[in-house]
Amino acid sequence: MSKTWLAPAKINLFLHINSRRSDGYHNLQTIFQLIDYCDELTFDITKDGLINRIDGNKNVKEDQDLIIKAAKMLQQETDVGLGVNISITKNIPSGSGLGGGSSNAATTLIALNELWNTKLSESKLMQIGLALGADVPIFIKGRSAWAGGVGDVLTAMNLPQHFFLVVSINKHISTKEIFSHKALTMTPQIGKISNFSELIEPHNDCLQAAIELESEILEVINHLKSSYGALYGPRMTGTGSCVFLEFENKRDAMVAYNNLPKKWSGFQAKAINTSPVYSHT
Predict the structure, then answer these.
(1) What architecture is the 3-156 domain classified under in CATH?
(2) Which of 130, 209, 257, 275 has its CA 20 to 30 A from that of 25?
(3) Does 135 participate in catalysis according to the annotation?
(4) Which residue in the list 65, 135, 205, 252 is annotated as catalytic?
């Protein structure tokens, strides 16, 4: 019998790169805001030990798919003899800074840990997830959170249930290219969660590098600056390429969405503090 699980997107409300690390990662500070815009993953457990992607994600080679990598890592870690057939319905655009691939990997680890009855702890799943990508642990934790370290030191936060307009230029930006780009800025000051609103401006240190790689991001920002009712100016999430606006009510978010030029795609989503990954069908 198959079961379907939701893999939510995230928005970085700000992103500060504090320093480079010797392991190739960067120390950062950010707030991960989960939103109710999700991919759907369906798992059908098999007894043959094989891991198959039977539908979806066709534009990603199977040996590069984080879903498949996550399943294989869990299988190797636990020596489980079971397999799985996986289908995915993609809604979150890839290379967008919304964490879709990381969320898919986290959902796979959580789902198969239950369905294979491997009984690994959350901390062990996060350890496996971190090897797949710096954003995977937030989706395993399943809570909107303040993050430090490489994004894996997490403090859950209850954030306002605001509405977001998210706009995509339909272009994929490489995280690796962003972090090696000469235009990447740094914020050496370390903020504190207790007063982040005063100490930390809501900016993204990856923005200028992303604009130099895809200048259309700046076009989106300039267009959204005129939107009525936004709580802040337009911001980019993660390493790009999606730009978002935050609103107190859904009506203003929908007005801004309806005013989008046709060349860009977008969606309206609501902030959530707890991931639906732990409420599956």
Answers:
(1) 2-Layer Sandwich (3.30)
(2) 275
(3) yes
(4) 135
